[in-house]
Every structure is written in structure tokens, then in C-alpha cells.
Design a protein that fits this description.
about 250 residues, alpha+beta, Phosphatase 2c, domain 1, six-stranded antiparallel β-sheet, five-stranded antiparallel β-sheet, globular
């Protein structure tokens, strides 16, 4: 796996309310990874706290629970149930936190768990990676390779108001999806400030599959430069919101 992150407060935003995490662990022949992007809800109090809290809890759960699931070869349904329980606890905590302070706060959340397997130790030629996706809000997950596909549905009403998030609101659950990445494919998570002024074709061109399937893909530094280029493109088109993005390619 190769990976990169992009993080920019912007020149106009009062503070950075986006938060992200990228964690990777080697487990023998297998690799595991966590990708998270959270975007604190503007117009409410302490959006930066809500986004950072959910991100940190996801990171703690990855090391405390998910890697144990991988080692014990637990199935996807069990892992997804455990992860949704962690997210439910985050929502319950933020609800209590807001009530104690007389405020409302919340965050979007897009999270992916990856479990890579190689047929031969040290050989990535035939690697593939199963992914589990969890989502609430208007950040997005994209699958790139031969083209670009949005994996999430924006939880927005007609006036762009969020109807699902994590925070001091009734629990509405999260979107869940499972699938598989093949060699040469990438999964990109990003906040709305990153994707809003970009076309899917631009993302596909930045991270699409090139050459033969056994060709080496982009390295970490290349991925970082491509994320930065896309972020700057959005800024050039008038984007003023915080931007956060994380990508993993196999």
C-alpha cells in the first residue's frame, strides 16, 4: 500500500474544523489500514472538537479492536457491528457533552478499514484489499482506477442541510458498504471543501490506473503532490472552506 494525506485550513476560514487519520499496520502477510475524514459542522459550537474526538476514537478502536479482528480472522459482519457500536458511543458522548455545556455540536464522518492480503510474502503483484466503509454527512469516498466512482451518498436535504451526522442529535445510524480494491486501484476520502469544485474526471486523471497491471503505482510523494494539485485547483475556483483528504493505493 502507498498512501498520502492533504490538510489545508485555507486563508478565509476562521479555524480548521476538518480532522483526518491515516494508520497502517503490518500483520505478517497482511496489511491493515484506517482512513478517516471528519468535518465539524459550521454554524454549530466546537465543530473542531467534534471532528477531532471522532477521529481519535476511530484511531483508538483501530489499534484496540480492529487489528485483533484481523489477527483472529473475524468476518466482515462482526467487524462492522463492532465499528458501528464505536460510532454510536461517539454520538452518545457528544450528545452528553453538548447537553452539559448547553451547546449543539456535530461532525460528518467518512471512514474506511482496509485488510490487504498477498498470495506470496513480499510480493504485491497479486495483492488485493477488502474494504469496509462507514459514512455519515457530506464528506465523500471515491474509488479510482479505471475511472472514478463515488462510494458514498451525501446525507443532505435540498437546502444542503445535513440530516445525518455524529454529534448532539438523535442517532440515525451510518451508511455501510463493503467491497474490494484491486491492484492499481485507490480509495480517496475527502471533506466537502476538497471535492466541491472538482469533477470526477479530474480525480480519475489524478489517480487512475496507468500502464500494465504489474507496473509499480505512484509512491507516497507522488500521491501527496497529486492531492495538493487537486486541492489547489479547488482553491483556484473559489473554495474557502477547510480541506482534508486521505488516499490509499494498492
Amino acid at each position: 500500500m502507498t498512501a498520502a494525506v492533504y490538510y489545508d485550513k485555507g486563508n478565509s476560514a476562521h479555524m480548521q474544523q476538518d480532522a483526518l487519520a491515516l494508520e497502517m499496520a503490518a500483520l505478517g502477510k497482511r496489511e491493515a489500514a484506517l482512513l478517516v475524514v471528519c468535518d465539524g459542522i459550521g454554524g454549530l459550537a466546537e465543530g473542531e472538537y467534534a471532528s477531532s474526538y471522532v477521529t481519535m476514537q476511530a484511531r483508538n478502536w483501530f489499534y484496540g479492536s480492529y487489528l485483533r479482528h484481523v489477527r483472529r480472522r473475524h468476518g466482515a459482519k462482526r467487524v462492522m457491528r463492532d465499528c458501528v457500536g464505536m460510532l454510536y458511543d461517539c454520538n452518545r458522548y457528544l450528545t452528553r457533552y453538548g447537553k452539559e455545556r448547553g451547546i449543539r455540536l456535530g461532525t460528518t464522518m467518512t471512514m474506511v478499514l482496509l485488510r490487504e492480503k498477498r498470495l506470496f510474502r513480499g510480493c504485491s503483484l497479486f495483492a488485493s484489499s477488502g474494504y469496509l466503509l462507514f459514512h455519515a454527512g457530506d464528506s465523500r469516498a471515491y474509488l479510482t482506477g479505471r475511472g472514478c466512482r463515488v462510494l458514498t451518498t451525501d446525507d443532505c436535504l435540498g437546502d444542503h442541510a445535513l440530516h445525518r451526522c455524529l454529534g448532539s442529535f438523535p442517532w440515525r445510524g451510518v451508511q455501510k458498504k463493503r467491497g474490494r480494491l484491486r491492484r492499481g486501484e485507490s480509495i480517496l476520502l475527502c471533506s466537502d471543501g476538497f471535492w466541491r469544485h472538482l469533477e470526477k474526471m479530474e480525480i480519475a486523471e489524478g489517480f487512475g490506473k496507468r500502464g500494465l497491471f504489474w507496473d509499480a503505482g505512484p509512491g507516497d510523494a507522488q500521491l501527496e503532490k497529486r492531492l495538493e494539485k487537486l486541492g489547489e485547483a479547488g482553491r483556484g475556483r473559489g473554495e474557502k472552506d477547510n480541506q482534508a483528504a486521505v488516499i490509499v493505493c494498492i
